[in-house]
């Protein structure tokens, strides 16, 4: 029996092709300037373009069905659950909620609702011992604007389904701060934008002269104004922000972050009354002016030399550029007009070698099984990853993504994005079959609920097997050659968070290895080139590549034969020693030194120089028959592990303690499910979750352990980052691999091995072990993706609940 994972939904479609600005509106209430601006950039497909789309019989593979052993208890809220929770919230009169669609910055409104990830200590008795199923609870983030000191706060609501027993209670137990209350110093972003435009208007003659453009908030603008993130508080009661001018592309290409203009101003936006706001100073060509008057006086005196402007041109476009480019008179790659090799499944649907329970997002491939969940903050994550029937990873997923910039100008210096604030879920748009994933992939949808709208990203998670392009095993001698194909299974999603595109892979291998890969593409955020050679390369006429660190923090809750585990460090080190056979002579050699990291006091770790240490989660109580503890090793792969260069960040203060080291080990606690919180960014000096608080001296000896590791890169963009950063080099990965876990390499249990015996007379025997080989004909035309089926998102307004009128509206994203 087969089923089709693609939903059959016929909709008027907005084609969402491009990411938003680097500075995504914090709350893009429909109708806000930002929302209008973003919407204006999104082309709408015509009826002809979408006709006949989504019959459910497109290129997507219909995977064989399997029934999950138990329901996916981590799965996101259903649309109906979200609607019920939002209606319940509106019935709580003390919350004084306004429907999100009508809410302004002085109202209280629902920012997002989501599942409370059930506690591990509640889940394991249910999963392993058939005890009571964990209750399902929701969490809600509420925007409290009806006060002079606006804030955001989270509650939990449950149990679900909503009944007379359901309550609204505190979610403070999920914080290190003791409260989910988080002061919001940027509640009036629409007004601050207006204020910036007015400031700019007051020097329009100078802006015209220096930048040849206008920023007024109108649709006709050719300049945009935005700046630091998060905002600064030089004193606890003061809010200031530096902003700069960016040129708005007139073409479809989203290259605004490649066109900084080099003029900056600083404003004091303390409090909620714009009458109390003021300009603090201006910066141009590294000269600071402490008032608008002094800046104007310098301009009028002719003291301002004009900088090179970053203007739009083909250089920001990602299309094929034609035969004439800056790098050669005829630079078209020879042969590139021909169709490239394609991947095809060998036997159509019958050949699919994995099984899917679509409703429960449960997957089985070879010796692995796992559940998929999806979160607004962090996107896709996996639960209960089992290998040969044993759980090896309870939870695996992204927790936070930092992009910390530096520069001699205040905007680059003041930029340190915490991307779960914007969320990976809202931007995990539909994957493009045949490009993001093979056309034969199985695609799954994902859903999140923000601003009282449920948004479904169709086909935003893909599952596929493919040949890695190199063997997993080979050997040959003068009598035989033996080879095993390296076929792996990948779960993939991609999120366009502002200017950047992140691709996330979880890949499973025949030897029991799991690999976590993150890759970055999209537009860099660049700096205007002036006096910043210490902060990046000069990559275009007026452009600096603006160096920055990407640090993506992952949680890997590894369980080896139960939850009583230890963290082993096996180090190879040089020694000089004598042996009974060395005739008293010292030999210079090396040894293996075994130790344990047995306390959280010592568990903030760096990857050792020369990779001379192996870190493993092992179970001391479960040695193999040779006495070695069975375990799984964690090991950097492509690009390796890393941590942030900047320590004690002036921007993030207490909100980047997950980025100080390459990896960490803590004792699992239900109260510490995530290294960060999406609301930290509102007030980074006082984070809701401070990762440093997880380290309180607890034992790591035969306890339930969690590893937190960082992937990313020190990104100093060079000319090859124009127009977009490329995945080939902008990637990092981690492998979780069996280490003395089994007694031999398990890939020997794959039938996809061949041995050819030969001698001087030629091939004597071919051993194929009963494996099937591809048969039949391939219709290569069928591998071409259905481009016109691409849809964008599907949104359903939840309050008032109107499921019969889904509409596409990707702008309303918190
Ligand atoms: Cu980068």
From TrEMBL:
GO terms for biological process: amine metabolic process. Pfam families: Cu_amine_oxid, Cu_amine_oxidN2, DUF1965. The active site is at residues 419, 500. Its EC number is 1.4.3.-. Residues 85-161 form the Copper amine oxidase N2-terminal domain. Contains 1 topaquinone per subunit. This is Amine oxidase. It is an enzyme of class 1 (oxidoreductase). GO terms for cellular component: plasma membrane. The modification 2',4',5'-topaquinone is found at residue 500. Keywords: Copper, Metal-binding, Oxidoreductase, Signal, TPQ. Its cofactor is Cu cation. Residues 1-22 form the signal peptide. InterPro entries: Cu_amine_oxidase, Cu_amine_oxidase_C, Cu_amine_oxidase_C_sf, Cu_amine_oxidase_N-reg, Cu_amine_oxidase_N2, DUF1965. Residues 256-322 form the DUF1965 domain.
């Amino acid at each position: 029996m087969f089923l089709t994972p693609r939903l059959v939904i016929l909709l008027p479609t907005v084609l969402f092709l491009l990411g938003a600005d680097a500075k995504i509106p914090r709350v893009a209430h429909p109708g806000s300037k930002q929302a209008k601006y973003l919407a204006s950039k999104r082309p709408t497909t015509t009826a002809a373009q979408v006709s006949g789309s989504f019959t459910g019989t497109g290129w997507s593979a219909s995977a064989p069905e399997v029934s999950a052993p138990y329901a996916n208890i981590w799965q996101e809220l259903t649309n109906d659950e979200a609607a019920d929770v939002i209606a319940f919230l509106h019935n709580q009169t003390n919350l004084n909620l306004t429907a999100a669609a009508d809410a302004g910055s002085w109202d209280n409104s629902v920012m997002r609702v989501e599942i409370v990830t059930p506690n591990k200590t509640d889940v394991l008795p249910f999963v392993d011992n058939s005890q009571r199923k964990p209750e399902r609870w929701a969490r809600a983030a509420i925007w409290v604007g009806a006060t002079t000191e606006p804030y955001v706060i989270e509650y939990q609501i449950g149990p679900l389904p909503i009944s007379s027993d359901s309550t609204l209670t505190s979610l403070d137990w999920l914080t290190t701060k003791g409260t989910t209350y988080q002061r919001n110093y940027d509640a009036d972003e629409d007004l601050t934008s207006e204020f910036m435009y007015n400031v700019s208007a007051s020097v329009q003659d100078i802006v015209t002269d220096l930048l040849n453009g206008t920023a007024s908030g109108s649709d006709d603008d050719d300049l945009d104004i935005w700046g630091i993130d998060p905002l600064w508080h030089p004193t606890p009661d003061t809010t200031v922000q530096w902003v700069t001018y960016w040129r708005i592309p007139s073409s479809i290409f989203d290259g605004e972050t490649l066109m900084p203009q080099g003029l900056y101003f600083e404003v004091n936006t303390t409090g909620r009354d714009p009458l109390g706001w003021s300009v603090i100073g201006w910066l141009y060509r590294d000269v600071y002016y402490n008032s608008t008057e002094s800046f104007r006086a310098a301009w009028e005196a002719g003291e301002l030399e004009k900088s090179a402007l970053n203007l739009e041109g083909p250089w920001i476009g990602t299309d094929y550029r034609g035969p004439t480019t800056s790098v050669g008179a005829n630079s078209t790659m020879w042969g590139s007009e021909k169709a490239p090799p394609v991947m095809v499944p060998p036997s159509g649907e019958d050949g699919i070698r994995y099984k899917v329970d679509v409703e429960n997002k449960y997957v089985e491939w070879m010796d692995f099984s796992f559940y998929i969940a999806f979160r607004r903050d962090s996107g896709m994550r996996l639960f209960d990853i089992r290998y040969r029937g044993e759980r090896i990873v309870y939870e695996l997923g992204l927790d936070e993504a930092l992009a910390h910039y530096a520069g001699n100008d205040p905007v680059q210096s003041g930029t340190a994005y915490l991307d779960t604030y914007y969320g990976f879920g809202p931007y995990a748009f539909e994957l493009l079959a045949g490009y993001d994933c093979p056309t034969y992939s199985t695609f799954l949808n994902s859903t999140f609920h923000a601003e009282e709208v449920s948004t479904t990203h169709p086909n935003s998670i893909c599952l596929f097997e493919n040949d890695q392009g190199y063997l997993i095993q080979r050997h040959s001698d003068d009598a035989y050659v033996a080879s095993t194909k390296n076929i792996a299974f990948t779960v993939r999603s991609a999120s366009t968070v502002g200017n950047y595109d992140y691709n996330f892979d979880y890949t499973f291998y025949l030897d029991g290895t799991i690999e976590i890969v993150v890759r970055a593409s999209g537009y860099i955020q660049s700096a205007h080139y002036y006096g910043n050679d210490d902060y990046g390369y000069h990559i275009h006429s007026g452009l600096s590549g603006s160096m920055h660190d990407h640090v993506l923090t992952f949680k890997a809750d590894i369980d080896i034969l139960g939850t009583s585990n230890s963290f082993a460090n096996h180090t190879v080190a040089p020694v000089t020693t004598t042996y009974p056979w060395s005739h008293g002579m010292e030999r210079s050699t090396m040894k293996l030194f075994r130790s344990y990291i047995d306390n959280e006091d010592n568990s903030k770790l760096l990857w050792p120089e020369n990779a001379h240490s192996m870190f493993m989660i092992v179970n001391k109580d479960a040695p193999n028959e040779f006495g070695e503890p069975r375990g799984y090793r964690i090991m950097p792969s492509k690009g390796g592990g890393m941590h942030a260069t900047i320590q004690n960040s002036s921007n993030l203060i207490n909100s980047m303690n997950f980025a100080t080291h390459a990896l960490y080990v803590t004792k699992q606690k239900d109260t510490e499910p995530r290294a960060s919180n999406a609301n930290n960014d509102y007030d980074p000096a006082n984070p809701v979750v401070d990762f440093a608080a997880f380290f309180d001296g607890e034992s790591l000896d035969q306890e339930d352990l969690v590893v937190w590791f960082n992937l990313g890169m020190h990104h100093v963009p060079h000319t090859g980052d124009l127009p977009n950063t490329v995945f080939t080099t902008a990637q990092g990965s981690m492998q979780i691999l069996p280490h003395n876990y089994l007694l031999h390499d398990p890939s020997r249990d794959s039938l996809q091995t061949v041995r050819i015996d030969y001698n001087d007379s030629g091939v004597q025997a071919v051993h194929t072990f009963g494996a099937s080989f591809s048969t039949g004909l391939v219709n290569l035309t069928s591998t071409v993706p259905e481009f016109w089926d691409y849809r964008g998102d599907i949104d359903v307004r939840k309050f008032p609940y109107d499921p019969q009128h889904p509409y596409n509206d990707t702008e309303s994203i918190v």
